[in-house]
Description:
Layout: E1 2-9, E2 15-21, E3 26-28, E4 31-33, H1 41-53, E5 57-58, E6 64-72, E7 81-92, E8 103-110, H2 121-130
Parallel strand pairs: 1-7
Antiparallel strand pairs: 1-4, 2-3, 2-8, 5-7, 6-7
Amino acid sequence: HVTATALVLHPERPAVLLVHHRRLERWLLPGGHVEPEDDSIGGAARREAREETGVRIAAPDGPVAGVDVHGIPPKKKEPFHLHHDVIVAFRAADAALECSEESFATAWCGEDEFDRYALPESIRLAYARARGKVR
């Protein structure tokens, strides 16, 4: 099914916002399912970023930076399935972050740290597309 992911750029330096996902045990972009109250995929991505990291997003929403299809491991009531993540780019209003119960940590990952955070190629490509297009 379709999910919404936020690629949030740091307000002052070349970096992207990541969450260390508790269940998947890896660094990812914040995101999740589109809810009935969301007015758009961009709105869902913005909401998920705020819920997971406390980040304040500067308006307006940026462009779609990519679509990533990946498998989600089975859990109690849900079998293995695919997520079709629509990645929407944003710029943060400031660098302040919090951490929700869904994650071990949140972090700003600089371009020179992509390998250390083991970022998949899909995130690297989306970041490259978003740079220079988000105000």
